[in-house]
Amino acid sequence: MSGRQHADIDSISGLESVGENVQLPTTYVVIKLIPDIQEKALQWLIEKIQGKKTDGGAELIVMLQPKTDPREEYTLHISANMVKLLEVAEDIELIKMDSQGRPVEFTVAQMDDFLIDGKKVDDLITLAERQSIILHELGNIRALTYEKSVPGYPSMKLYENQAVIPFLQNRQLITKMYPLHDEEQLKKMAGYWYLSRLTKQPINAIKDYFGESITLYFAFLEFYTLALIVPAILGLCGTIFTETIPFFSVFNVIWVTLFLELWKRKSNELAYKWGTIGMTSLDEPRPEFRGIMGVDAVTGKVCLQAPRYITYLRMYLVSLPIVIVCMVLAYWLMLFSIWSEDYVKLIEIEEGGMISKDYLIMVPSTVYSIIIPVISAYFKDLATYLTEWENHRTQSQFERHRVTKLVLFEFVNNFLCLFYIAFVLRDVEMLRSQLRTMLIVSQTIYNFQEVFLPLGLNHFHKKSQKINKNTNPETQRQKEKATEACSPLLNIPQLQADDRRIKQAENESRLEEYQDTFDDYLELYIQFGFVFLFSSVYPIAAFWALLNNVLEIRADAFKLCTLYRRSFIRKSKDIGAWQRSFEVLGGLSILTNCGMLYLSPDIRSRFPDYSDMELLMAFMCLEQLLLGVRYLIHIAISDKPEWVRVALARKSYESKQALKFERSQRNKKILYRFRTVQ
Amino acid sequence: MSGRQHADIDSISGLESVGENVQLPTTYVVIKLIPDIQEKALQWLIEKIQGKKTDGGAELIVMLQPKTDPREEYTLHISANMVKLLEVAEDIELIKMDSQGRPVEFTVAQMDDFLIDGKKVDDLITLAERQSIILHELGNIRALTYEKSVPGYPSMKLYENQAVIPFLQNRQLITKMYPLHDEEQLKKMAGYWYLSRLTKQPINAIKDYFGESITLYFAFLEFYTLALIVPAILGLCGTIFTETIPFFSVFNVIWVTLFLELWKRKSNELAYKWGTIGMTSLDEPRPEFRGIMGVDAVTGKVCLQAPRYITYLRMYLVSLPIVIVCMVLAYWLMLFSIWSEDYVKLIEIEEGGMISKDYLIMVPSTVYSIIIPVISAYFKDLATYLTEWENHRTQSQFERHRVTKLVLFEFVNNFLCLFYIAFVLRDVEMLRSQLRTMLIVSQTIYNFQEVFLPLGLNHFHKKSQKINKNTNPETQRQKEKATEACSPLLNIPQLQADDRRIKQAENESRLEEYQDTFDDYLELYIQFGFVFLFSSVYPIAAFWALLNNVLEIRADAFKLCTLYRRSFIRKSKDIGAWQRSFEVLGGLSILTNCGMLYLSPDIRSRFPDYSDMELLMAFMCLEQLLLGVRYLIHIAISDKPEWVRVALARKSYESKQALKFERSQRNKKILYRFRTVQ
Description:
Chains A, B: It comes from Hypothenemus hampei. The structure is a homodimer. Chain A is of the alpha+beta class.
């Protein structure tokens, strides 16, 4: 509590020395608007961003980037001074480590507690946190009662307290909104991360840069990859000693359960360290949350409220039936593709043309594999729309319900054909070849989509830009003209034309946007299914998956660091709906593996004395037994490590004591009176 | 916060007007010691009870009951003054409703908050709570470093900080320790409870009198009875329209899952209202908990500590194998009884003597049904011993692990023979008759054991006591003598010979002790198994169970109110291991009912076109489907009702704010300095 760091406070200024632009503060977030936006609307938006909280504003600093071309988009650079940042940090309960290394909500009043190890006030809030603070404030820009529509766009009606920024994004006046990368930090991180060989990932640095949600993905991927080592070894052994496969597949099933239970512990451990473990559905609503202002039941503050039962009604009465119909349609499509393949085979036998038959047979499955991604993309939009409409309060809830819908659909797309082959056609050879093809093809396609496609696009973009520049000699004059045309209208500071932020903003604007972790998890999910659902049929799958994942960690890291625009950090306390999705797959794998063992001719030849009936009974018993073991593992392993439980209990105890103390302060007199009676 | 109730504080005295004994305070707890206890030991114990906290004492008031006969046990009446009661109430975080009707930890400082609706200080802590406060303090009487053994008993070694009272109970110097009934309250309650016809139970009054643990049992029994109405109606329909049984048994399985999930909600609701919902394994240890003094990781206070891993090692490496061995032995015993019955049947056919055969056949099952309760009783002791030895920290943990062991064993005793008959012998008729017999016999036996046996014993006791009195004319003289002999030795207040508390203490001392809710739950558990495991075979079981339970509620209430000694209240937040036990039974019922449907000749005759194999497949699919439905119900129904979640979140929010506030008070200066810089 000494004054050792207090001197640093003088350096709080919100100004940073950015090249020659000493007087303009750092850009945290860049907003791009369509080139032909009505000036009124632009002016209104800027005033909102600068405006006071009480006027629905965000109290942020806006800087305009000079336009070099009228056809170019308007670009706003958003910043804030340190006081604002600290205020919001306290408001959104940013978690920081205190001097005892425990995660605590940051408050300005106890700033000294967080200024440890020679940290200065400027180091206290990381760049990523500043960006997310800006996002939070932008998201809270609200329409006032008398603002019935966006100025200049009478058709864009606003209701009271509507979140303005998401609305403008939705109506595509705002085309892009993104934080800027920190190239120095990225370079530092790369050495420990995707450029390193076999070291552990720098989880803390990743979390500071990309936020909890993305880091949880990488932590899960690492944990899963490590867990794959055992099934991979067993799979390799299985290819050598084929008679041990039954044992291995039983073991795998137990291993999967163990892995998922242990991951839950690990995840809770991380969530505790990051201070996200206490997130609940009663936390702050997402900006898109619709409702009317009311007193919050938990905090007693006035904020948006919407009855939860309407969300439930929409979920169960509308979304669920729609999702089920889509799943049934996808199932029919799959059946249709298999049937038409059979049909094509029959036709060709009659006609006898060899070459055309080979081609024709491939037509249904080719058409199917082209249609599926298209349908998936449409369904993704549908699921997002439905979940948005359900109006979930928090981002975590929103994501959980969106992911659940998508996973159900993708389950049908990816796994149902395997079930069909395994249990209806009962063709083990076809199943094995299908597994092999799908595993290898899907992994290749994903890696291509993820890394090489954006890499290529990037390259192409850069080239075309260069050509553009070369063919356009008038740029400089136009730039100045545009700058002049703009500045008197909008009375805000402008960046100088040679500010290096302009180049960075433009470069990163051309990068692809990183939507969320869904595609990355989905890739693992599908792989997980291919490896474990039928591990008795194709045990080597685990080995290929392991190899792939070692590369995957690096590919994903590389992709995020260099190929995508930076995204805002998202908090989350766990991997959300994915935990349950993987668990369901784990449970199903018991059913499928026992089923495959029963169907396998290998087993039958080994127990020739047993009738079909007895074998079926035996594998039914095995399945029930494994389900029992799974349940036992589930209840024997506690969700949180002992130390996390103790730490949480301590915190809750301390808060309870503080509450007691506060109350006792209020009623001190009575104690005194009571004692004097004795 | 006005002074409206402050005048009541003057009435705080700890003294109550009990007949003529105005100067002696109310008896809360009675302790009985063996008649021939060493005077030194008695003196030591009394001094301990009166002694200061720092000397390992309890700071309570002790009164001696005059002995009428040297062969009579020593009887101590324990009391405490109001200040002591309030102090401990705060210390053990007694939950009380505050003026807003929310459960809050009681503190003396905010006493005004709890004095609502004209309550006086004397009404604040119920009699049951006072008794449990006394128990808590008695339990915390500890041996000091220099107290190496109980005075007068050199062989009874004590270690430092050993809990004295449980030790003396264990060594049988203390024979009984019980709180006194409140006859007025009991009479009032009876009218609403077991004497009423079909009204709801007075849950709040029961909770105030008997505590959370017993009340949860009654709440569960009521909830279960209500839930039984639907299966009972279906069962009745089933006996009329026999072809609908398959549908009913499938429905039952889903009903059971729903019932258990909804009960969890109900139970959490009650736990919230009672303020027990926050109980964790890190709460205050039970008196029997052994360990060394250390700093508690949660509260930072110095209290007993023992490493948790030793408990785990003992549980998994010692207790678990022992329990499994016992289960296997019980299983063999069951098999042996069935085999010997078969064997007897065979013998008799050869010899041909009709009457002796009928008798002989009954011998194995009779012997078995006599042996089982005996073994069960022994196993109960073993389980209690093992769980004690595992050294669980809290009472809830202790009970959960004890109940788990017992339930596993009782499962084998009660249900395994049904499984054997159903799936090994595959004799549906035998199964049905077995179910009928066991259901009716067990319910009759239980009701007899519970109500009529104690009723008879009580009657017998009273009679014999009367005779004793009449045949002993010297009593009065002896009484006076004994009183004189005693009083100079023990320098403590004595009750007057005509104090009506003496009669009450003696009467209640002769009542049976109510151990815990285990036997009551077990009865329901076994009934639940008989009703749902094979509901497709004997659907009317639900109806008999419903009838029985309507009586059961009243019988159990009557028993607790009149036949048993009052027990100390036990807190609990849920029904502990029973929830899981019922859930496992619910899960198994899916398996058994599908199995029974497959085996039923009825089904076979209805689908003559299907092969055995196809039928088996069909019922396997049905089982998997039902398991899936069960899982969906499980995840769709939240464990806590929305309002409880909101209330908990609000409380946690308030405490967090208080903690923040407390911290900010500490660092106020910095805020000021920081603001001035701006």
